[in-house]
Structures are given as structure tokens and as C-alpha cells.
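Predict structure. Chain length: 200.
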Amino acid sequence: MRKLDPKRTAVVGLHWQHEAVSPDGIFGPLFAEQVSRHHVATYAARVSAAARSSGGLVIYTRVAYRPGYPDLIPNTPTFAMIPEQQAYLEGTPKTRIIDEVAPKAGDVIITHARLTGFFGTELDTVLRGRGIETLLFTGVATNISVTGTAFEAINHGYRIVIVADACTAATDDAHQAGLATLGLLGEVASTDDVIGALAG
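Prediction complete.
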């Protein structure tokens, strides 16, 4: 892959929350086994650590809603499940980011209410304020929120790199299909490739 300028690179970690990737989370039945089996969080943590140590920015996007869900529009089956199961309520333990990839001092956390990280958030403002040009994506799900946020990033003018072994989906086939689509628009690389590119 092409060299990365750490000062102009940010890691965007999508939905590393207990609700999404822990077995007892609302979407744990979809993603927890995949995250565990492929050691996805371990790879994501390595990418974030490499970015921090080289002077890059680490950002996490997380979903959380106000009590009573006034900020949720239940226009999909998955969104409709959230209030039914009282999931993703701000301040509850399962909205926290899992310990393995826990934010460190200097990291940025973006909270959003829809599928993707840019929509209705200050993400683009934060990135432009730091002079970021390239985004490295980790998290879940490769074929849904990672793809959607990557598409938004392209429309905002960013270079995208999908860290293939630091993302996953509900199935291996769905993950690979997401990577195939994203590879037409950006770069798909391994954790080792990304760490090497950050090191120059």
C-alpha cells in the first residue's frame, strides 16, 4: 500500500461497543463470535496504537440515545429493535467501548444516532481541524456501517483505507463482499501493512 503520513491520518473505529460486539449486546448474536474468532479487536487495537505512537489521530464512533429515544427514528427492523430492548441508552454499561480497544488520552469519541459516523455529527469538522486526509477504518459491520461511513468519507474528499483484519461482519461472506465493494473505491490492507505504512 502507499505510504501514510501519520500527521494526516486518522483511525476511525466504528461501533466497538458492548451492544455491538459483546455476546450479551443487542447485536452480539451477529458479531461477537466473528470478532472473537478472527481476533478483530486485537488487530484494531494494534492499528490504533500504531497511529497514536506515530502522531496520528484515533477516533471512535459510538451509538447512544437519550432516555425515551426521542432521537431515534425506527425506520428499519434493526432500529425498531433498539427501543424494544432498551438498548444503546446513554450512560448504560453496554454503550461503553470494549476494554480491548478502549480510548486513550487524546482520542476523540463521536456519538451518533444513525447508521454512519458522519451523518448528523461533528466528525468532518474534527478531521478537517486536524488536517486529516486519510482514514483507516476498523470495526463493525464491514458491509453496513463501515461501508456507509467510508462512502461518506469519499464524498467528503478523504482517502479511505479499510483494515481488512480489523473489521468484520455477521458472516465471512458478508465481510468479503463488503471488502470487494470497498476495494473498488479505496484501499484494502492488513493490519501489518498499515503499521508498516505508518512507520514509513
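Summary: The radius of gyration is 16 Å.
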